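Folding Query — how this chain folds
Tokens — whole-number codes for backbone shape
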Amino acid sequence: MTRRDVDKLQEEIEELFADLWQVPRFSGMRHGFRPNVDCFHTDDPHALTVVVELPGVDPQSVRVVAGERLLVVAGERKRPRVPGRVYQQMEIEYGPFQRQVHLAEDVDPEGAVARFEHGVLTIELPAADKPPAQGRYRITVERLD
């Protein structure tokens, strides 16, 4: 078993426990939300792409940081404050969020591009032959809508 296999197994176990320990939304005890994420690679150009569903999130609140085989997307979806509003039903999740995506290969965070359009964040990370030279890199999110 290689280091990559162990890392992938650890990621899968962490995701499983995160899903199992989620408090049902109707209990009123759940804080924040967990946006859905897709991650895929392409060969031409050789890159990893991460897509995060963030409807209702202000793009200014989104932070994207890449490091050695890790991408972190964090921010907050705030509940609109409207005086006099009395809820009959509350199912939409609000609050802070953070998703960590363990990347299958090394990437070049300095060449990354992040676009936010229609509530969807798309991050393209060019593949690299070796890990980034130093720590973590903040990726600027470009708003398209």
Summary: Strands lie at 37-43, 46-53, 63-67, 70-77, 95-102, 113-117, 120-126, 137-139, 141-143. The chain has one domain: 3-80+89-143. The chain has one helix and nine strands. The mean pLDDT is 85.
